[in-house]
Design goal:
- There is one protein chain.
- Helix content is about 40%, strand content about 15%.
- By secondary structure, the chain is α/β, with parallel strands linked by helices.
- The structure holds ligand F0G.
- Ligand F0G binds next to helix 4 and helix 9.
- Its EC number is 4.2.3.1.
- One of its GO terms (molecular function) is threonine synthase activity.
- This is Threonine synthase.
Length: about 350
């Protein structure tokens, strides 16, 4: 098999792969670590963007999902189920299709970005949209899955976080060391926990000599960890992280504390601004992903960065997932003109 084999094979020695584990892959992982020239110059740091939108279904979820679905199949399960703000469901639907399993997804009605919904539909998942939010959907999944014999593939499934560790491995493999700090969006708080597990694993195996400080960012209207209590009605336009009671709350807090980092929050306005700056680096990430860069800018403003340090911002999902946000926040629209050179020249007025 030519090229990158996917994470189950590439990182087999770090994953629960046995001789009975199906060699499932959509060639997930091996995503670009893009040097952000403009942000680096502005912040006087070395800023890298880990572009997880380059995964097969366009988000980091594929790393965990390939492991969770392979293990579900190994265990003889026929149906996987998850609650989702969109990306988990797109990934579950894709890997279930690949593995020949059924996927059932519970989503908050009206709060899933268009591209994510389109994926779940096309991959043939059974979609149930609840009148309620993600937290309620996850509570329902926890209640109904076991009696129905379905495998839960939310990040409460330990195989998910094991697979998601591989992004931390890749960053270290690419840089030849760990970054000084990692900036990452926080929703259900699984991914920050997985990265910390990954860095810790590499540290214990002596592949790196130090671990990064972990800085996680919730959206201000959904910042349960920052406030110290669950939020019944979380709100943010970054619907991927519109979550009021994160399942991996304690793990995320421990990652921040043990690493000397923090869990903080950023406003929707700051997320929208970071979303634009990321595009100026030539990278299109979805709004929730921009919480990492918004967090970096916030820490810079607070004087929290050291000149010359190396930081990685995790861009968790592809901008194409959420075309509505892109168009709503756009600073310009297409000029519609007649199809002749003069009309085009006039429209470009003065530009050369
Ligand atoms: N960024 C994106 C694009 C996401 O889709 C998510 C979570 C996060 C960040 C936050 O990661 O939950 O591990 O802290 N999306 C989940 C989903 C909830 O259902 O797709 P987390």
């Amino acid at each position: 098999r030519p090229g990158w084999p996917g994470i189950l094979e590439a990182y087999a020695s770090f994953l629960p792969v046995t001789e009975h584990t199906p060699r499932l892959t959509l060639h997930e992982g091996n995503t670009p670590l893009v040097y952000a020239d403009k942000l680096s110059e502005r912040l006087e740091c070395h800023v890298y963007l880990k572009f997880e939108g380059a995964n097969p279904t366009g988000s980091f979820k594929d790393r965990g999902m390939v492991v969770a679905v392979a293990k579900a199949k190994e265990a003889g399960k026929r149906v996987v189920i998850c609650a989702s703000t969109g990306n988990t469901s797109a990934s579950a639907a894709a890997y279930a299709a690949r593995a020949g399993l059924e996927a059932v997804i519970l989503i908050p009605h009206g709060y899933v970005a268009l591209g994510k919904l389109a994926q779940a539909v096309q991959y043939g998942a059974r979609i149930v949209a609840i009148r309620g939010n993600f937290d309620q959907a996850l509570a329902i999944v926890r209640e109904v899955a076991e009696p129905l014999g379905m495998e839960v593939v939310n990040s409460i499934n330990p195989y998910r976080l094991m697979g998601q560790q591989t992004a931390a491995f890749e960053i270290c493999d690419t840089l030849g060391r760990a970054p000084d700090a990692l900036y990452i969006p926080v929703g259900n708080a699984g991914n920050i926990s997985a990265y910390w597990m990954g860095f810790t694993r590499y540290y214990e195996e002596k592949r790196i000599h130090a671990r990064p400080k972990m800085f996680g960012f919730e959206a201000e209207g959904a910042a349960a960890i920052v406030r110290g209590e669950p939020i019944a009605h979380p709100e943010t336009f970054a619907t991927a992280i519109r979550i009021g009671n994160p399942a991996s709350w304690d793990k995320a807090v421990r990652a921040a504390q043990e690493s000397g980092g923090a869990i903080d929050c950023v406003t929707d306005e700051a997320i929208a601004e970071a979303y634009r700056l990321i595009a100026q680096e030539g990278v299109f990430a979805e709004p929730a992903s921009a919480a990492s860069v918004a967090g970096l800018l916030k820490r810079h403003r607070e004087g929290g960065l050291t000149r010359g340090e190396t930081v990685v911002c995790v861009l968790t999902g592809n901008g194409l997932k959420d075309p509505d946000s892109a168009m709503r926040l756009a600073s310009q629209e297409a000029l519609v003109v007649d199809g002749d050179p003069d009309a085009v020249r006039r429209a470009l007025g003065g530009l050369s």
